[in-house]
Amino acid sequence: MDHIYLDHNATTPLHPQVLEAMMPYLTDQFGNGSSIHFYGRQVRSAVDKAREQVASLIGAKSPSEVVFTSGGTESDNHAIKGTALRQKNAPSNHIITTSIEHSAVLHTCEYLEKHGFEITYLPVDRHGLISLDQFRETIQEDTILISIMYVNNEIGAIQSMTNISSIAQDHNIPVHTDAVQAIGKIPVDVEDLGVNLLSLSAHKFYGPKGVGANYVRQRTRLDNFVHGGAQERNRRAGTENVAAIVGMGEAAEIAKRDLQENSDRITKLTNRLRNGLKEKIENIRENGHSEHTDPGTLSISVKSVSGEMLLMRLDMEGICASSGSACASGSVEPSHVLAQLGLPPEVAQSTVRFSVGSTNTEEQIDKTIRKVTEIVDQMRSVQDSSWV
User: Fold this and answer.
1) pLDDT tens digit sequence for 341-375
2) Which residues are catalytic?
3) How many domains is the chain built from?
């Protein structure tokens, strides 16, 4: 069976060029970048190149502003906890975030709440967007950090980070954004966004798993999150995962090169899927914003259909999608993101997320439309007949 992969927000397949770039550092070029001899210099040069590639992708002024981590979750933790720890002996302890953040941000903030920090969770409208006026009113004299996701992983909603940062700058408050779902999909320039901290993860843009990075703007004060050696200019201890870092650098270069082409193509495919499903299936709701959304995310709720059962049936047909965040897999609770949009539990539990990527084709999209329509018709007919 040929499978159709429509879960690119969970992870993306490794680009062949990325694997090719990584291979030497899994075999012959095995040195430790902290060593001063030939083998160490080999890999140190490769890590430096990768840092330049990632910095170029996000528009950083200097490669030194890029700190490699183990992935998006560590990057979020480092940005938020690192900022909070700088204030541990100060009276200022207020952080602003949103109610629809990734669990890496929400759980980190919940942890800080238990240690005396005050967290404000901004609500969102039915499209998943915050109110800038409400955000402005939430700022306090003791606010030390604003952490707001750029692109939501479940519904694709894009927050106005430039405006958020502008408001924050008026109060001299640093801004962190979880941009894991933005990189490689929409243009990301840290200078245009005005953020102080930005998190990204390689496996979301066709790089390897287990590696990510934090952008840390020069003169941004941040405590270390991982202690030990002097790696990453004393900002993140531990022997570098060289092969993965090289892969992330290669993926970053490809993402920058192909951004517009991929974005246009994925937008076209997603619109084809959206329009096809709406044309074929009655009582279907799209979650998120029609304009302020990333190119590849389509979250739909299908009335009178179990989202979990629909996903299982699709999987049997070789079509891979999801109910939302991959980090919530196995949870029986409705998505916190969908709940914050105001969806009743029964509607949230009828939701499926398709996330289109560069590997998809029109033929795959058309087959998905056909199969989803067939399965929904069957599920609804069985439900109707049970009431006869």
Assistant:
1) 999 999 999 999 999 999 999 999 999 999 999 99
2) 327
3) 2
Strands (E), the chain: 4-5, 66-69, 94-98, 118-122, 143-147, 175-178, 197-201, 212-216, 284-287, 297-302, 319-320, 351-355
Token pair recorded at residue 14? 């490794």
Residues 227 and 277 placed together within one structural domain of the fold: no
Clarify whether residues 170 and 100 are in a common domain. Answer: yes
Rounded Cα distance between 358 and 262, Å, is 6
Q: Which three-class secondary structure string do you get for 257-308?
A: HHHHHHHHHHHHHHHHHHHHHHHHCCCEEEECCCCCECCCEEEEEECCCCHH
Strands (E), 83-179: 94-98, 118-122, 143-147, 175-178
Q: What is the pLDDT of residues 181-227, one digit of tens each?
A: 999 999 999 999 999 999 999 999 999 999 999 999 999 989 888 88
Residue identified by tokens 């528009």 is 59
